[in-house]
Amino acid sequence: MSNKNQMYQDLVEVVKVCTYTPGEGGVAGFPLLLLGQPGAGKTTLMDIICDELGRHFVPWHLSLKDREDIFMKAPVKGKLRLHLDEEIHNLLERKHVTLFLDEVTECDGSQQKIAMRMLQERFVGNVALPECMNIILAGNPPGQATAGQRLAKPVVDRMIKLNVDELWPSEDYADDWCSEYEANGFDYDAAAVTPLDADKEWERVYAEWDKVFKEERLKVGAFIRANKTKLHPIDTKNFNPRSLDDWSFPTRRSNARLGRLLAGCRIHKVSERLRNALIIGTVGIDYAETFFQFERNLGMLPNFEDLLDGKVQYQHDSLRPDIAMILARYCTSLVTEKMALKKALSKSADDSEVWEGRVVRLWKILESIIDEDPMSVDLLEACVNTLIEAGLSSRKPAFTMAARKVCVKVCPLVVNANY
User: Fold this and answer.
1) Cα–Cα distance between 7 and 372 in angstroms, integer?
2) What CA–CA distance (Å, rounded) separates 406 from 51?
3) Cβ(91)–Cβ(99) under 8 Å?
4) Is residue 15 pLDDT above 90, yes or no?
5) Is the dihedral angle over the CA atoms 66, 67, 70, 75 positive or is it negative?
6) pLDDT(314) > 80
7) Which residue, among 54, 42, 51, 45, has the nearest Cα to 104 in the 3D structure?
8) 128 three-class SS
9) Is the dihedral of CA 49, 55, 56, 58 positive or negative?
10) pLDDT class for 76, splitting at 50, 70, 90?
11) Where are the alpha helices (DSSP H) in 174-243?
């Protein structure tokens, strides 16, 4: 495959996962910001890719519009009523629309507020955007924008950022570009592509979603528990990005998006290179590198559900306390997750029995780790406190018996007060 074709297929992969992955609140996908030098062909490529993915592509130059161009109040029968731009009305009447906000780095403060409401509240004026509509944005990197506008931190935090020039350097596909230009002048034949069936693609995604999203959500939760000190949102007042790396950072919002992104990448079988780029574009490179190491450590561990069900065993290595901490935090997330607790307490006896067995086995696993490595007490304290706060050291007689030996060593004051 030529470099140019590889670039195109990579972009299809990226746009597909950012379009056909359930976002928060039931909306389609995640906002994706493509940053690249002027004239790189971002708009043309997105038009072609959206055709292939079964989307209606609607480009919109927000930077060229005033607020009154988009929506304004006009008198009707003696009352002021809100009137929307005709383009917005056309958007609302179509299904599976990709709204492409071009040149967003040229938007001034008032235009960014309009974009912010579209991204955060999914509203234009007082009209809600359809849930099946996703938003892709394009702009120029810092220093290359004509007007030199700086995107506000709350706007940036609501998007996944990708540096087109960095992922696909122009020199890598210059020869292919020249050959195609010389051959046909980029006279693309849109009819030659069979578009994806959007409804069937959503059916395929939702068939796998619940299971995969749960696994990835628990992974992110365990990672955050193990790296709380790294979750430091950037101060809005002092937000002054000097490079593209500064435009992505860890916040509660970006971490919530991370679990969905990981699940989407698994379902759509996104390549590791592009998956890593999307993660970096969500939470920043420093945070992402720590997460990648966390995932590598996870690969050294057994399946956590099988472990808690007694199907496999864990042998603690005192030289790798970090592995034990990951295991403990991940298993703690599994048994204390709100959905797991609710299901166990309100559903059938079989569900409750499985969950109770997992809680007891977790206490025994923690006990075996402490017996083999007494120095691990400090590492496990947060997990033990989480289990106690969830009532999993006292809710059932079996919990009390299993938890006592661990609590005596990790938090003796709690034992003296409750046993």
Assistant:
1) 51
2) 59
3) yes
4) yes
5) negative
6) yes
7) 42
8) strand
9) negative
10) very low
11) 174-184, 198-226
